[in-house]
Amino acid sequence: MDQPHRPPTNPAPARAPIRALIVDDSTTVRRLMELTLAPVGVDLDFTESGETAIAMTRAKHYDIIFLDIMLPGINGYRVCKAIKGDKRTKNTPVVMLTSRDGTIDRVRGIMAGTNVYLTKPLERHELIQAIDKCLPSRLLLSPAASGGTTVVSVGR
Q1: Top-tier CATH class for 18-154
Q2: Burial of 48 (0-12, 13-18, 19+ CB in 10 A)
C-alpha cells in the first residue's frame, strides 16, 4: 500500500546564542562566568574596565551585561547609567555583581538602572536565574531550577 504524501519537514531555525558582556576586574569571577555560561550556549565577551565596557556596548549588541560595581576607572554605577542613558543600549538588561550588599548600595544600583542585583560570592544558579529573569524568552529553566539547575533551552 502506498504511503500518503507528506510535505518535507523543515528543521527548526537555528537559535542565536545569547550575547553577554562580563565587566569585572576579578579573574576568578570572569572564569566562574565563563565556566557557568559558556556551556549553556552563551557567547561571552570580557573586559576589566568601565570605560572599555561602554565602548564595547557602542560597537556591538549585547543581550545582557554583567557588571561589577568596583572597577578601575569609572565605577559600575556610572557605567550602568551610561548604558541606560544611550538610546541604543537603554533596553539591554544589566545585572550588577558586587560584594556590596547594603541597602544604600542596592538603591544606588536601582537608581543607576540595574535590572538584577547579585552579591558575591556568586552562585551558579543565580547567574542562570538572572538571565532567565532578564531574557525569559531566551533561556528556560526546568522546574527543578531551585536545586541543581538544568538548562532546557537556550536561544530565541
Answers
A1: alpha beta
A2: middle
pLDDT digit string, tens, across residues 64-95 = 999 999 999 999 999 999 999 999 999 999 99
For residue 145, with 0-12 CB atoms within 10 Å meaning exposed, 13-18 middle and 19 or more buried, which class applies? middle
Each residue's pLDDT tens digit, 86-126 = 999 999 999 999 888 889 999 999 999 999 999 988 888 88
Per-domain residue ranges of the chain = 18-154
Classify residue 45 by its DSSP letter: E
Helices (H) and strands (E) in the chain — how many of each? 5, 7
- Per DSSP (E only), the strands in 42-82 are 42-47, 64-68
- In angstroms, what CA-CA distances link 28 with 23, 119, 132, 136, 140? 12, 15, 23, 27, 26
Q: DSSP letter at 139?
A: E
**What phi and psi values does residue 138 have, to the nearest 5 degrees?**
-105, -25
**SS3 state at 153:** strand
| 125, 132 contact by CB (below 8 A) | no
> Model-level pTM greater than 0.70?
yes
